[in-house]
Amino acid sequence: MPCILGIDSGLTVTKAVIFDADGTVLSTARRRVPQLIPAPQHIERDMDGMWAATADAIREAVFACGRPASDIVAIAATAHGDGIYLLDKDTRPLGNAIVSLDTRADAIADAWNSAEIGDQSLALTGQKPHASAPSAILRWIRDNEPERYARIAHFIAAKDWLRFCLCGTIGTDRTEASTSFTDVRTQDYTDGALRLFGLDGLVGRQPPIAGSTDVVGGVTAATARLTGLVEGTPVMAGLHDVTASALGMGGYGEGVVAVIAGTYSINETVSRAPKVDARWFCRNGILPGEWNSMSISPASTANYDWFIDQFCASDAKAAEAAGQSIHAILGEEFEAARARPSSVFFHPYLFGSPFGGASSAGFYGLNAWHDRGDLVRAVLEGIAFNHRVHVDALRDGFAPRSARLTGGVSRNPAMAGLFADILGMPVTATRTEEAAAWGAALCAGAGAGLFASPTDDPRDLASIETTYQPDPDRQKAYDEKYRVFLDLAEAMKPLWPTLRRLGGAAQ
């Protein structure tokens, strides 16, 4: 039976996953990709190091899958979206990649959005600029690193760099192309977008657009030697990881909102016509005539990971030594805390928020009698509240009837139930293994003729998912807490810039 390689390179881990044609995972290999933080707000990665780690993961997956490499009939990659990866005229990396957690350009994005450019961008491209948008980052480079800017021959996304390393061709796909520079109605590039952002020097240098299922090359001889893949194996264009995750979890479509609780708070739904609003990005869907509207912020479970690192490190080591999980321990503390009233709130804005570049995280309502369980509860509720900010926006525009949840937290029934209570709608948690990689594999398989289309998922989805209904009493209580959560954000808006200044960061 043929198999498919899906590659998923996130913000900290790159993965190679080989799937059988029925969606069964045959092998998975992971490698960490270090984040580089050379200055406040600057979050980067070494591009050659990223490829070396990915190639190593591919090689491990190929040799672990129990099939000859010749059984792999198609390959596609997905990776973190937005940010920027630059190549010079010799197709070599032009410095480190700038990833989507980077906020060096937040002042540029905020200035645009407080002027006419923000509204003009929304009308033209379907989205207002933000700190990690290619438009804002490229403008920052133009203004602060003019020599580097002058040497840009190609600007691409993370998964497009992996595609280049796999097969030697430069380009992108429809979903990734729409992160800054396409016309929201034609779904194709417009030079007017580059000019709007003051990037006239890059007109004509946009990467060619292919469909996510299009074959864009074959594995090169050098890559075959490095990875164990067969030279010439078809490589498809792939897609943005936000879209790949929705596709892989069975949540890509109309009438449903796909909720991905990971580093980013990602919430998205599909429509057959463009609908533009400042509260979401209206971007290209996988196929022509599809739009994927996504309401997102860098404010989800990375906050929970930070909490564990900062306040639970010794307990986590002890639990691991005893064969236990810190997540299980915190889960018990969360349930105990949820059984009693609590005034504790948490804004999960360590890396950003829906409320502008100057925002920051914070605990509120703390008293001496609160314990760690109350803090864990506040962190997890804050994450779900922030998802509701985005889901409520999409409900206004598209009226989705249900939600599908993926991400590490979705495997915890308490968390899936928490999302149902806070969102006030049925939430289906899927046990999909490697949703984003499977989304890429579905595109690869469709391009190879294994599936009729990317949404022709061969799995029995009903057998790997559970639907949680909101509890009426908890939903009512969370509605009240959610209003307080928003009131706290409104009260903090005028103070956040001062806090940032006190911390030494530029406003």
Automatic annotation (TrEMBL):
Cross-referenced InterPro entries: ATPase_NBD (IPR043129), Carb_kinase_FGGY (IPR000577), Carb_kinase_FGGY_CS (IPR018483), FGGY_C (IPR018485), FGGY_Carb_Kinase (IPR050406), FGGY_N (IPR018484)
Residue span, Carbohydrate kinase FGGY C-terminal domain: 258-446
Principal EC category: transferase
Domain named Carbohydrate kinase FGGY N-terminal: residues: 4-248
One Pfam family linked to the record: FGGY_C
GO MF entry, a single one: kinase activity
Domain of life: Bacteria
Alphabetical list of CDD domains matching this protein: ASKHA_NBD_FGGY_EcLyxK-like (cd07802)
SUPFAM superfamilies xref list: Actin-like ATPase domain (SSF53067)
EC number from the UniProt entry: 2.7.1.-
Record family assignment: Belongs to the FGGY kinase family.
Name of the molecule in the record: FGGY-family carbohydrate kinase
Protein species of origin: Shinella oryzae
